[in-house]
Design brief:
Vanadium-containing Chloroperoxidase, domain 2; 0% strand; 8 helices; elongated; mainly alpha
């Protein structure tokens, strides 16, 4: 079963290599680096927390989701699964791979870029902010760039989409519930105090 999935992973990656082009390499490198360390999503979460007074719940939800991503992916799943990256495996089999970007040194499963991207984008989407669709498209492009450069398998990215979406939803639910409870507390205090 796992060999069958790995074969499909490599078939998809080989098909994607047919669209490689020097100009597209540079565009995709910019896109993939936007997702490095979850930087874009951390900056957006801070923006919503500090400057978006209308509804700070978005920043709270993103912050929760990104912390859960860090704990579950970087300090959990990657250490347990220890999956070799596709370019490493291809080089072990005698193929020369040009990833164009600096090859990551950690393990492959799941894609941290993808998980943090969907964990960050989903709360924006669920709270129906005007940046929702541009950020969702950005999350998809970052995820695709990881396949384009052969640093992740499709199953790494697909798992990252699922896990990131789940963690984004958890962040959304916690932020929504906690802010609802906070407003009830404030109203109660105002009425009795």
């Amino acid at each position: 079963m796992t060999q069958w999935i790995t074969n499909i992973d490599f078939q998809i990656l080989e098909a994607l290599q047919t669209i490689r082009h020097p100009i597209l390499d540079y565009i995709m490198a910019v896109i993939t680096h936007i997702g490095d360390g979850g930087a874009l999503w951390i900056v957006l979460a801070l923006y919503f927390l500090i400057f978006y007074k209308k509804d700070r719940r978005i920043g709270i939800a993103m912050g929760i989701a990104l912390i859960l991503t860090l704990l579950s992916v970087n300090f959990g799943i990657k250490l347990i699964v220890q999956r070799m990256r596709p370019f490493d495996l291809a080089e072990l089999q005698g193929q020369t791979i040009d990833t164009f970007i600096s090859p990551p040194t950690d393990t492959s499963f799941p894609s941290g870029h993808t998980t943090s991207s969907f964990a960050g984008a989903l709360p924006i989407l669920l709270f129906k902010h005007k940046l929702a669709w541009p950020m969702f498209v950005t999350a998809c492009l970052i995820s695709f760039s990881r396949l384009y450069f052969l640093v992740h398998y499709p199953t790494d990215v697909f798992s990252g989409v699922l896990l990131g979406s789940l963690l984004g939803w958890v962040g959304y639910v916690i932020a929504r519930y906690s802010m609802f409870r906070w407003r009830i507390y404030q109203r109660s205090r105002d009425l009795h105090g």
